[in-house]
Amino acid sequence: MKKIWVALALTCCVFLGIATITPPQRCTAATTSAAMENRLDSLSGIEVVDGSAEMSTYRGRRAVHLLALPGHPPDDSPMAILKETDMKDGTIEVEVAGAPKPGSDPDNRGFIGVVFRVREHGSRAEYFYLRPTNGRADDQLRRNHSVQYQSMPDYPWYRLRKETPGVYESYADLEPGVWTKMKIVVAGTKARLYVNGAEQPCLMVNDLKLGDSRGAIGLWAYGGTDGYFTNLQVH
User: pLDDT higher for 162 or 70?
Assistant: First the structure.
């Protein structure tokens, strides 16, 4: 399997809340023999919706830092879409670090994660995300809500929790603000989430709500979260 190594050069243009950057190598499910490594040491080929992005060094690593728009409600959570990706099935690996911003809502858990099969500028997408402050909570119920699947716009987390409690969320050992590896394996209407190199998934979804679809890959963080991303690989 031939790999295409992509080194991205830094450039960022933020205009009306959308950052647009020159696209890198295109990665599609139709060419599954190709792989993309995007170390996220620059902003290239990214469209940021409901926020902006900047390059930052966090815990010794060059990373993409997602930022909410000043004055906007926290539900306007920034999403960085890799515009030239178009994945149906495959594996996404990335390292993330998320923690609540100082002074944010006490219910903010540092929500951070990955979106895939993204369509219509982020209005339709499948999500796997983490709640880092839940990972080592003293409350077992909170621990059970450490990792989450949701599908927008029709299946937000609170609907899934109400209608099928415990099915689309689970436990993983997490720490806020610490680099955490996420691996997502997608095939048809199924997806698996692995955290920190575990051999077994911490969350399995057998009925992705957008069906057997395809779309872009992206990065996501809640508006009240300090969210950092690095070392993205798609294969």
Answer: 162
Q: Where are the beta strands (DSSP E) in the chain?
A: 4-6, 14-15, 18-20, 27-28, 36-38, 46-49, 52-58, 61-67, 79-87, 90-100, 112-119, 124-130, 147-152, 169-170, 180-187, 190-195, 203-205, 215-221, 225-234
- Please tell me the predicted confidence (pLDDT) of residue 23: 37
Token readout for 205 is 């979804």
Q: What secondary structure letter does DSSP report for 121?
A: G
The DSSP bridge partners found for residue 206 are none
Residue 127 amino acid letter: Y
How many Å apart are CA 200 and CA 203, to the nearest integer? 9
Could you state, in order of their start, the residue ranges of all structural domains in the chain? 4-234
Identify the band that residue 41 occupies on the pLDDT scale cut at 50, 70 and 90.
confident
What's the CATH superfamily of 4-234? Exo-inulinase; domain 1 (2.60.120.560)
Distance CA 68, CA 213 (A): 29
**Interval 132-157: pLDDT, tens:** 999 999 999 999 999 999 999 999 99
Share above pLDDT 90 across residues of the chain, in percent, rounded to a whole number: 72
What SS3 class is residue 78?
coil
pLDDT at 40: 82
**DSSP character at residue 225:** E
Alpha-carbon distance 172 to 132, whole Å? 9
